[in-house]
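S.,

As promised, the calcium ion run. Input:
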Amino acid sequence: MKKIIVKVLLSAVLFAFLGCVFSFGAGAATGIEDGVISFAVYEAGDANADGIVDIRDTVCMKKHIAGADNSIDAAAADIDGNSLIDGGDLVLLRKIILDS
Ligand SMILES: [Ca+2]
Ligand SMILES: [Ca+2]
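Predicted complex:
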């Protein structure tokens, strides 16, 4: 009986942690120090890193794709996670904005 309770508690803690991480959008492990895993938290699509996903992010992403501006949050702008910031990410960003 104790094993079942422990498993339920561990599952609850894991789901609470994952819910916390994913409620911010996306994150990537940035390092481990003293047994603590650090995460960079960003919202997918927030290319200009102002905390809001909106039309200004599409402008920022278009400028970056055109080579006119490199001041972009690359992790947030790479929405499909293929390590490139391209038209596919722009399509996904428009969908995110339209669905919000
Ligand atoms: Ca933004
Ligand atoms: Ca991409």
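The mean pLDDT is 80. The pocket of calcium ion (ligand 2) is lined by residues 78, 80, 82, 84-86, 88-89 (CB under 6 Å).

- D.
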